[in-house]
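fyi for ur records
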Amino acid sequence: MTYLMINAPKKIDYQSSIKLMGKAAREASLALSSISSVKKNQALLEIAKSLDKHRQTILSANLLDMELARSNKLETTLLDRLELNNTRIDTMIEGLKQVTELPDPIGETSDLETRPNGLRVGKMRVPIGVVGIIYESRPNVTIDSAALCLKSGNACILRGGSESIQTNRAMGMCIKNGLAETGLPSSVIQVINEIDRAIVGELITMSDYIDVIIPRGGKSLIERLIQDSRIPMIKHLEGNCHVFIDRDADHQKAINIALNSKTHRYGVCNAMETLLIAKSIAPKILPKLAMKFSEKGVELRGCNQSKKIVGNLILATESDWFEEYLGPTLAIKLVLDVDEAIEHINKYGSKHTDSIVSENISTTQKFMMEVDSSSVMTNTSTRFADGFEYGLGAEIGISTDKIHARGPVGLLGLTTEKWVVFGDGHVRQ
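which gave:
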């Protein structure tokens, strides 16, 4: 049984339709919680097959989205997120396969302890239930989210942005294909095919049907959801990431890491936005870095001290230290030592990802312990802050919250625990 339809549905009452989707998702989540890992993995592999079989349809749909986005003068960084090619489809397929190879956390029982009265008490890992995911531009989120929600036993409702509607419709049908081939109801994973922005308002208030909202998008979207959502969220607001080059850094490592962190891809949340350099080594390394960044077309905005070393830097303002540029612009600040670097990051950073380049173990340990971010790194690019790179198979997002999940959110981040108690006729006196 294989089918693919990407025609837009007729205009309907979105309030009623979203509630029906929510009710169906709730029912599906109850059934999904007891489905075997074998069955879930089979469905993921069937989705992967459907993506591969219909990749030309997906690419054609994406081309329509790209043409409209260009005509609407969508930002270059957003265009990069929106665009699909065979390599990116291959990555999605590989992500699906990797998720099948991950241990299924559902049903795991841990911390079993026998109490003095003979009761055995422990915890069992269970799905959250129904996950609502709201995202912009990135059509790959459709597949990544579907894979992780399905494997972790959660039903999900996916609402992509209007700029990627054709692509999401195509991939949504591929998901339906995979579920149908496996005998799972389509309500396990539902893709909203309407683009009315009011749908988001309805989705984030359906607390009877949705257990958690995961937003992936720009600052304005996140701020709106923070203000209006009646449902708990797993989110990050911004990706203001730092690289600190310590006085004991290997200079070549530092140059390579800084360049990769900033220029590998601009429009991603784990790209470096501020470079911190120890003052003692700045005269040697900053001119080399400035030349390399200039060759890449990166605009540099620096503090007074950095401008004295490289005269053509634009003088940075206070707002630059907070900025998530998501483009070829970089802020540079010279700091006295690791303490000042940590102070700067904890004051201006977004608690996303920050990295130190240093050969001094004591310094790196201090940085790792005291920087308050969801990912803290030593001698590596911030671009590795990614669920795929962390071995999660894929990620549903990167959380800068401290409750319930933090950092790249994979399978475990989509589960919770319940207490389980084993007795043998016990009654409380």
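The chain has two domains: 14-234+409-421, 241-384. thats all i got for now
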